[in-house]
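hi! just following up on the protien thing from before. the input was this:
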Amino acid sequence: MIVDDHDGPNAALLLKDLRASANGKKSLIIALAKTDAVLDAVFGAGTHLVIYKPLTHDRLRNGLRAIRPLMGKQQHRGSLRVKVHIAGKLTVNDTQNIPVKILDLSSGGAALSLSSTCPTVKTLKLSFALPGEQTIITAAAELVWKNVWGNVGIVFVNTDSGFTSSVSRWMKDCPPAK
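and the predicted 3d structure came back as:
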């Protein structure tokens, strides 16, 4: 949802109604605002990103680049996720190994807590053993979001059916993440 501060009280009412609706809680909200806008009020209304006016190519590009991880996170949440605490290894460029803790897991992706800063590289490999299993499984992944606490979200790509069925089978006995 894109809201323009030019609409004033109507924009604030729209954001309030959107946040109260079931679908609105999942919406990404971008505000277009003058440079002198009161940001506490803008972000307090649930805005995820502010793009300042006048709109320029650079402001739009940088703003959309900043919100893209959130868009990817929502897009890839179609898979049921399970809260876990599994130790794993994230391999970057087939050379750098970063110890990770898997926070939630699905057959489509995972949220990770990293012990060090994640390089801004898109292609990764995640290796781990499911609880109660001895076999290490590995999947190629792409970074889709990261936050200020050092957590990242990945989506699994080009996974073989063995990986997907192992994770799905294991997840059947686990409560879903909230």
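DSSP finds four helices and nine strands in the chain.
Residues 57-75 form the longest helix (19 residues).
cheers
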